[in-house]
Please model this.
Amino acid sequence: MNSSTDSPNKATTPPLLLGEKALDFPLGDQLPALGEAISVAPGVLWIRMSLPFALDHINLWLLEDSESTSEGTRHGWTAVDCGVTNDGTQAAWEQLFIDVLKNLPILRVVVTHMHPDHMGLAHWLCAKFKAPLWMSATEYQSALLGSTGTSDFGGPSTQRFFADHGWRDPADQAQVNERIAYYGDMVPSVPRSYHRLFEGTTLTIGGQSWRCISGWGHSPEHMALFCDATHTLISGDMVLPKISTNVSVSAQEPESDSLALFLASLKKFDSLPEDTLVLPSHGRPFRGLHKRTAQLHEHHADRLQEVLAACSQKPGSAFDMLPVLFKRPLNFHQTTFAMGESVAHLHTLWYEGKVDRIKDAQGVWRFCAIA
Model:
């Protein structure tokens, strides 16, 4: 699933194609092996877990930490994000406890957002170490809903939403309808209490202050973490070095302008230092944050122009726009995320007053350019 996190590989414009070439990767092609860790910043370890999707990995972060107890100082770790719930990921964590954590406990679990590759094993880590969960309220409540069967990854409401936007193949519709447990299979449980993160919340971890930067468009209330002392940004899925973050409209908020929210959120990173080391959830740690956010702005501006041009030729649905946005065939799984992205681009044009929308006789939203 990233699935939940990232869009299918797109045919992109030159700015995004340049992507990695314009960035600096201080560790080169070095990657941590499963069950191992690489030091990437003072007190920060990079670990990497497998995912059962085309996007086959997620980066997780371990931060050296300590807490005061009645018996003195207790040393351990803060874990940032968790991986999906499955036997392989759990076994990899078990190996890390011995070889990397040196049997020191996890003192706190921070989750950037509720998507399964980030949230999946939070319940297990929190229970195993009696560690508190830290995340934003909107993400926590969304995870709680998703784990009980109400999510945007499948079920009747998502099926109807896709149908309203032109995806009406009967076999695909049936498959979407049957995916009601898709989220819960990877996030079977959510801790029953948590500590709430807000925009600007500062966490003291291992003597360093990490400031929360909220973001929208990819998930309900994503939290990135920035350390002013070391110029290190744990960006989650908001800024990735190679692929563009999935930005979708979903059945739970069918009138949202997710892309505008995402692009506005990217501007929050403009004030961070030029030499910021970005620790993304997918891909390699890099420097060049401002170059990357500029690429993403250009990328989406180009996509919007292409969609507008297509709507000028003839009214179209989000399903009609898929070949405009994605230049290669999409499988069923990829289409579920591509549809949300397509609606997001159409909605931005609609809210900007560049296209209008009508519901045709079949009940499908069609968008046409305003002359």
User: Anything to note?
Assistant: The chain has one domain: 19-289. The mean pLDDT is 92.
